[in-house]
Structures are given as structure tokens and as C-alpha cells.
Amino acid sequence: MSCPAPSRHTKPSAEDCVTGFVDLRNVRLSYGGASSATLALEDLTISVAKGEFAAVVGPSGCGKSTLMKLATGLIRPNAGTVEVAGHEVDGPVSIAGMAFQNPSMLPWRTTLKNVMLPLEIVQPHRKRLSRERSRYVSLAESLLELVGLKGFGEKYPWQLSGGMQQRANLCRALIHDPALLMLDEPFGALDAFTREELWQVMRDLHAEKQFTTILVTHDLREAVFLADKVFVMSARPGRIIETKDITFARPRPIDLTYEAGFNDVVHELREHIADARAAA
Ligand SMILES: Nc1ncnc2c1ncn2[C@@H]1O[C@H](COP(=O)(O)OP(=O)(O)OP(=O)(O)O)[C@@H](O)[C@H]1O
């Protein structure tokens, strides 16, 4: 079922529009002034259903991070519409949690206090935090336990390895129980073994909490292991040139990534990106 593009003055409810939880339609985004504009996205349409795990891949500079900024309301499109949970996005989306390649933990705060940071900013948690601190501390500790960091809450970030910091970073992105999780190359800086460990952490977190997820990555194995659907973007100006459904049964064991059928899908995606690069 298609959803009519709403005007900027109407806010359809989630019930009015059932196409997806995150919908970008015919989006154009240009950076800079008229004389030095960079057209980053042109006619980009993407729809991610509630609870779905989507991955976005494409040539370097094709506009993947721009897509993430649009979906979280950090920037507005020049044309087209961006909707999250049935509402047109017109400012930062508070139901989104975000994690990037660099964990950017505050070195003067313990891991637990870093994880709890969004609670000091995002409502309604902010007004509840001082009254319900012990409940929130338990929540942060249970998230740390889920990602394998039980007992590390009182350590400072500089006492953790890169992989441990990225685990804590995922907890910080999830502490306010976001309905939408945006991941921009979160495992890109990690070694191959740690990366595979964190794919499994991410797999289990998503299975347990069922948040809608959009993952930007250059790692096609990561995309195929984690996602229900992989969007392939063209070279800049970016648009979606291929949508690949990933149908491997869940829960997916890490050994799947070494099987022939898995590698066939990875190669298929690689071909699409090679074509996109060649067409640039
Ligand atoms: N703030 C900005 N001002 C001007 N141009 C920008 C800005 N941010 C991004 N761009 C340009 O827009 C295009 C898309 O950038 P974006 O970061 O979205 O691509 P990407 O696909 O995430 O890149 P990569 O794969 O290298 O991380 C690039 O040409 C980039 O130089």
C-alpha cells in the first residue's frame, strides 16, 4: 500500500501510513551554496518496516551518512519527504539512538555514567532520572551485562579496549529504549575477530529488543549477516539502485558467514557496487 506524501503542515499518525517505520521519499539533498553546491542525494526513496534491520551499502561518498542525518532529523531535505513512525521529520528525532565508528566516550566519566548520559538529555527520562536513579542504574547494568561488560561499569573508557568501548557505545545508544537505532560504521575500526563478536552482540540485542535498525557499512559480510534487507546506493548523487532481501534463517550462527550461499549474496552485492563505481 502506498502512502500519499503529506504536506509540511499535516502530521499523519502512524495508523494513517503503514508503508514503513522510516520512509524517505524522492529525497534530494544538496550541501553548500548555489555556486559550490554538492548534490549528495537525488531522488532517493527508501522504506524500512517497524522492527526490520536494514543495511545501507554503496561506494565511498555516495551519501550514506547523509541519509542517516536526514532520517534522524539532523538535516532537512531540499525536496522530498522524510517520515519516522508516521510523522514528518522536522527536527532531531528523539526516538532514535545512534552509534558511530568512534565511540566518543567522555574520559572523565565511568563507563556506567557514559552509558547513562542520554538519560540526562532525552525526555521523559531526564525529568525522571533523579527520582528513579536506581532503576536506571539497574537498566544500564543489565545492558552492560547483555553486551558482555558485566562488572565494567566503574571502569573509565580509557581502561577498556576498543571493542569494549564499542560495546559500551551500543549500550549508550540503547539506554533510552529507542524505537529506532542508527548505526554508522560502528564496527569499522575494530579487528576482524572483535568485529565478528560484535556482530553477534548486535544480532542478539536486535532479537531481544526488536528496534528498527539502519546500519551503514562498507563491510558487505556485516550487512548480509545482520540485515533483513540491504539497500545498495549509486555513486553520488546517491539513490537506491538495488534492494536485496536477506532470507537466511534467524538466529544466524557466525559460521554462516563462511558458507558458500552466504558468499554468493556478498558477491552479488559487490557486483552492484562495482557497477555503481564504474558508472560514476
Ligand atoms: N557538511 C558537508 N558539507 C559539504 N559537503 C558535504 C558535507 N557532508 C558531506 N558532504 C559531501 O556529500 C557527499 C556525501 O557524503 P556522505 O558523508 O553522506 O557520504 P558517505 O557515503 O557516508 O561517505 P563514506 O562512505 O566515505 O563515509 C560527499 O561528496 C561529501 O563530500
Automatic annotation (TrEMBL):
CDD domains: ABC_NrtD_SsuB_transporters (cd03293). InterPro entries: AAA+_ATPase, ABC_transporter-like_ATP-bd, ABC_transporter-like_CS, ABC_transporter_ATP-bind, P-loop_NTPase. One of its GO terms (molecular function) is ATP hydrolysis activity. SMART domains: AAA (SM00382). It holds the Pfam family ABC_tran. Keywords: ATP-binding, Nucleotide-binding, Transport. SUPFAM superfamilies: P-loop containing nucleoside triphosphate hydrolases. The keyword Transport applies. Residues 22-260 form the ABC transporter domain. It comes from the Bacteria. Belongs to the ABC transporter superfamily. PANTHER family: ALIPHATIC SULFONATES IMPORT ATP-BINDING PROTEIN SSUB, TAURINE IMPORT ATP-BINDING PROTEIN-RELATED. This is NitT/TauT family transport system ATP-binding protein. It comes from Roseibium hamelinense.
